[in-house]
Amino acid sequence: MNTLLTISGLGVFCLIAEIFNLRKLLIPVAIIGLLAILGLTISEFNIPSSHYNNMIVVNRFSVSFSSLFIVLTIFLIALSGDFYKEHQSKLSDYVAIKIFLLAGAVAMVSFGNLAMFFIGIEVLSISLYILAASKRLEVNSNEAGMKYFLLGSFASGIILFGICLIYGATGYFNIDEIFQLSQGAGIPVWFPIGLTLIIIGMLFKIAAAPFHFWAPDVYEGAPSITTALMSTLAKVVAMATLYKLIQGMVPAIPTIFENIIVVISVLTMSVGNLMALRQNNVKRMLAFSGISHAGFMLMALLSLSSAAGTLLYYTTAYALAGIAAFAVIILVTKNKDNEDIINFNGLGKTNPLMAAILTASLLSMAGIPIFSGFFAKFSLFTNTIESGYLFVVIAGVINSIVSIGYYFKLIIAMYTKDAAETPSATPFVYYFTAVIAIILNIAIGVFPNTILNLLSA
Amino acid sequence: MNNILNQIGIENYIFLSVLLFCIGVFGVLYRRNAIIVLMSIEIMLNAVNLLFVAFSTYHQDAEGQIFVFFSMAVAAAEVAVGLAILVSIFRNLGSIDIDNLKNLKG
């Protein structure tokens, strides 16, 4: 609970800092503050507790996912200093919005009451609408913001209706009471309908197929740093919340629901990969790649009781690779008007370190050993086979092979083509962020058990 | 209050709310004017608020009515952001027809 309070306090501080003209200190102070909050959060790891009539529940699941979100936010705020260099007067707003977004994310994984869940998802979504439309003079950014706003609030309405039906069926918002009542016989039919509506709304938010159509447009039009935020932080938050919701409210998923999850998972990863093969815009390609990763993450729902650690590992590996990749993409496309693959030609010669980092992060997403993406997929597949869904794993393996196709398109452009122009100087912060993200990625790839076993004890 | 609910029946409240919710959904899907789309989203959220209050009386429990305050506050914040985005679209394009928003595709 201290996590949520201190994050909100830090957000308010960032807004006040603007009044006292502390703009130069803003980003270092925000990062130091977040590091302190990270320490505070980790110190609560072994002390499960609940606050305010079970509104907020602190347990290992919430602490470890909150720590992951805080780490991702630190990277994103570090990158935003240079990204918003031309917009100094709005810097504190952007940083504050990102910190409030983090508060929403933490509320979403540590809720014990559906009211808290709803507030969390709305704080996260409203911050994202603002960030997606934040380049207000560009039509593309406006369009992305509007599309995201319409689809997002549509999904929020569906989630709210689901919460309402669950309240009608049980008479409680507290998920512990709902869990108790959902086991008993004679629960009204509203309950499964409500649960389905909440799940549909969450599938909108994680951009799983048939509800994925907004994601590529929004990712392409939004400013690059917001795309990085949406494809790493927002996706991971929505996935963790969906897992917690289902695990918290029903003892076991009925078989028919599991079959639907199987269909959605396979459909999501196939649609994402096949569409990614024909993209020329890197942000759009990574949007489709993110859709296919959402399909992989949905597999965790098939082995609900044991997959928490695997889900944490997969999301960590995916998000760290995403941060490293986007650090390079933001750098390369900084002064360009589009993000086509052509901009990456010859990066291997002009800036070998950045090219190597981008290659490493793409290989991690594709699931090549040494990088943590491989072990993430490996343990996910193992879990899924153990719960008896061999078919999904076969589809997953085929999709991993297909995904190498489009990741290598970018890698080949970097190393075999010639650069069109001479590179400009690289700000240090890009190297710093990208190198740390990729080192963390490789470190958890070398020692996978540190994270895989975190939630099992 | 409970007496009225008994006479009308909770099912009818659910039917009314579902009907209003569907009006909102079809408004979002079929109308092209962004202001009307925003209004349709509001109808969706308010249909749910109505159902919350009905269930709250049905269960003799105040929690549902408190939730309505939360969802009203959230809906207000959401619409404020939506209108802000709409204003910047109008400044750039001179129109609020959402069919004009099709630069991004592929």
From TrEMBL, chain A:
Its EC number is 7.1.1.-. Residues 113-402 form the NADH:quinone oxidoreductase/Mrp antiporter transmembrane domain. It is found in: Cell membrane; Endomembrane system; Membrane. It is a multi-pass membrane protein. Pfam families: Proton_antipo_M. PANTHER family: NADH DEHYDROGENASE. NDH-1 is composed of 14 different subunits. Subunits NuoA, H, J, K, L, M, N constitute the membrane sector of the complex. This is NADH-quinone oxidoreductase subunit N. The lineage of its organism: Bacteria, Pseudomonadati, Bacteroidota, Flavobacteriia, Flavobacteriales. The gene is nuoN.
TrEMBL record, chain B:
It is found in: Cell membrane; Membrane. Its EC number is 7.1.1.-. Keywords: Cell membrane, Membrane, NAD, Oxidoreductase, Quinone, Translocase, Transmembrane, Transmembrane helix, Transport. GO terms for molecular function: oxidoreductase activity. It is a multi-pass membrane protein. InterPro entries: NADH_UbQ_OxRdtase_chain4L/K, NUOK/Mnh_C1-like. Its main location: membrane. The keyword Translocase applies. The keyword Ribosomal protein does not apply. It is an enzyme of class 7 (translocase). It catalyses: a quinone + NADH + 5 H(+)(in) = a quinol + NAD(+) + 4 H(+)(out). The chain crosses the membrane at residues 12-30, 36-55, 67-90. Belongs to the complex I subunit 4L family. NDH-1 shuttles electrons from NADH, via FMN and iron-sulfur (Fe-S) centers, to quinones in the respiratory chain. The immediate electron acceptor for the enzyme in this species is believed to be a menaquinone. Couples the redox reaction to proton translocation (for every two electrons transferred, four hydrogen ions are translocated across the cytoplasmic membrane), and thus conserves the redox energy in a proton gradient. NDH-1 is composed of 14 different subunits. Subunits NuoA, H, J, K, L, M, N constitute the membrane sector of the complex. HAMAP family: NDH1_NuoK (MF_01456). PANTHER family: NADH-UBIQUINONE OXIDOREDUCTASE CHAIN 4L (PTHR11434:SF16), NADH-UBIQUINONE OXIDOREDUCTASE SUBUNIT ND4L (PTHR11434). This is NADH-quinone oxidoreductase subunit K. It comes from Flavobacterium fragile. The lineage of its organism: Bacteria, Pseudomonadati, Bacteroidota, Flavobacteriia, Flavobacteriales. The gene is nuoK.
